[in-house]
Amino acid sequence: MTRHLITSALPYINGIKHLGNMVGSMLPADVYARYLRQRGHDVLYICATDEHGTPAELAAKAAGLPVAEFCAQQHAAQKAVYDGFGLEFDYFGRTSSRQNIEITQHFARRLKENGFIEERTTRQVYSLADGRFLPDRYIVGTCPYCGYEAARGDQCENCTRVLDPTDLLEARSAVSGSTELEVRETKHLFLLQSKLEGEVAAFVEAHGKEWPTLASSIARKWLTEGLLDRSITRDLEWGVPVPADVWPDLAAEGKVFYVWFDAPIGYIGATKEWADAAGEGETRDWRSWWFEADESVRYTEFMAKDNVPFHTVMFPATQLGTREPWKKVDYVKAFNWLTYYGGKFSTSQNRGIFADAALELLPADYWRYFLMAGAPESDDASFSWELFSSVVNKDLADTLGNFVNRVLSFSRKRFGDQVPAGHAAGEAERRLGDEVARLLAEYEEHLEALQFRKAAFALRALWSAGNAYLEEKAPWLEIKSDPEAAALTLRTAMNLIHLYGVLSEPIIPFTSRALRAVFDAPEAAAAAWVSGEEARALSAIRAGTGFTVPPVLFAKITEEDLESFKERFGGQEG
Which residues of this UniProt protein bind Zn(2+) (predicted)? Predict the structure, then answer.
């Protein structure tokens, strides 16, 4: 059976991430990993904090902390939030780790040996006020392509164009705000992407046919425009050092590698961290996932659209240039943006709902379901509190939560704390089983295809099928004339609850656990995937099994709640 390697775009270390980051990479990767594990696949889900580059230094400076201490604190803080969201990484590493430094320097040495890195004298922006060369992200200004006034020196956040600092109009220092900038000569290393363009194009042609249009079109756009040689070193105090045994002069000057050079390598570095963290008597082979693994591993990456160029062009070029058999991505699942009342979620501008604040308001499954049900796959999606409350109330509280409460409360009232037996299944139960099997097949198909909105819709349809069955059979009426008929209906509905507990696990894992805990049965303890035939039978939970009625699964969001949320976070266009 194919092993599945999964990575999600590395979250920057400069603060807790917003829901746009969550839905654009980590959450869908977790949903997919959970689904594959349920199906019995060998899965390795790797992520890490992206700790190098200008954002780390600027954030540490603003916090008044040494950058290493700041990064360590933020890594722990981010991990706590992701744990709260139920993200089950196999390992959540750090790009500042010893393992990533070693592997990044190895990549650089191999690229140099093969003629794909060269040292060049360049003209770079120097800040007179700061007394230093400014890395690209230390420079902000107006984008020459779209006119966005807060573009960074490496990329415009608005139009996603990759920039050089000298491209910016009305440029100023992000450190001091000074416009006293001049261009001076300095030396840097360049990755000769132009020499690798044909190989990268062949890679994209071979793999991109399978990718979503969003990912493949961005990669092909870069290739159509032609790959330029890219500077891969910066003047920063914090980063992967240029190895002194290869470039002694640059090392002496304190040059470090560009964050977009070492960050994708960080997936490999974090996998080695995972291997090195193995417990006593446990063996973990990180190389089997990354080296000479083309036939045995399927590699899927999750990211927002602004990260696509680096993962589909620059990182493959880096891997190809080593002339070593590093595993390259098979499938790139790219997402558009989640907007906040028409404006962008933005970490740098503190606009939108941030993951820690979201968990303070409501449990993780509220957010997980909403984000997957409206995942920005085909276009940008807009967050509003009105839409959020509508989805939570209708889908989670009314469709799933109310079904569970009605069935269990009524059954306990009429039959006690054990699953009743009742008649043998009849025509209504056979129709229900066929409908459940059909919807389950749709749900599986959408998860296999990484179509998360469609998967959430199919899951909701499964919940709705239970409600439709309950309304058709009306056990509150059956109990008056035929208690055994009512018992059959309730037993069947309880099997649906168990089934929902299993099938909902990828998207709403906390609720899934609560539903499986309802029944005092060995079958209910596991979350292994069910087949269509098992679902059709609806008999995993047998008569006589004990059960409990859980607390309310989903509290409805009231108008008062809605007004409170909007007052705190804003409810108008960003």
Answer: 143, 146, 156, 159
Residue 150, both tokens? 């807060």
Residue numbering of the annotated binding site:
143, 146, 156, 159, 347
Residues of the chain with pLDDT under 50: 574
Q: Could you give the CA distance from residue 431 to residue 485 in angstroms, rounded to a whole number?
A: 16
- β-pairing verdict for 3-8 and 43-49: parallel
- Report how far residue 17's alpha carbon sits from residue 356's, in angstroms, rounded to the nearest whole number: 8
The secondary structure of 38-103 as a DSSP string is: HTT--EEEEEEEB--SHHHHHHHHHHTS-HHHHHHHHHHHHHHHHHHTT---SEEEETTSHHHHHH
Q: What is the pLDDT of residue 183?
A: 86
**What number of residues does the chain have?**
574
pLDDT given at position 574: 43
Question: Computed over its alpha carbons, how large is the radius of gyration of the chain?
Answer: 27
284-289: Cβ within 8 A, 24+ apart: 289/3, 289/5, 289/44, 289/327
Three-state helix/strand/coil letters over 381-408: EEECHHHHHHHHHHHHHHHHHHHHHHHH
Strand partners, 351: 346
125 contacts 182 by C-beta, under 8 angstroms:
yes
Closest by CA position to 267, among listed 462, 443, 94: 94
Q: Which burial class, exposed, middle or buried, applies to 206 when counting CB atoms under 10 A from its CB (0-12, 13-18, 19+)?
A: exposed
Number of neighbours of residue 356 by Cβ within 10 angstroms:
17
pLDDT (0 to 100) of residue 350: 63
With both helix axes pointing from N to C terminus, report the angle between 427-448 and 452-473 in degrees, rounded to the nearest 10. Answer: 170
Instruction: Cite the annotated binding site for Zn(2+) by residue number.
Output: 143, 146, 156, 159
Rounded distance between C-alpha atoms, residue 454 and residue 338, angstroms: 17
Q: Give, as one character, the DSSP assignment of residue 546.
A: B
183 sits in which H/E element: strand 181-191
pTM over 0.90: yes
DSSP 11: P
Q: What is the pLDDT of residue 543?
A: 96
Estimate to the nearest angstrom the gap between the alpha carbon of 435 and the chain centroid: 31
The pLDDT assigned to 539 comes to: 93
pLDDT, tens digit, for every residue of 551-560? 999 999 999 9
**What would the two tokens of residue 449 be?**
């295809």
Residue 436 token pair: 């459940």
Cβ-contact 108, 242 below 8 angstroms: yes
Which residues does the annotation place in the binding site for ATP?
347
427-448 helix and 27-38 helix, angle to the nearest 10 degrees = 120
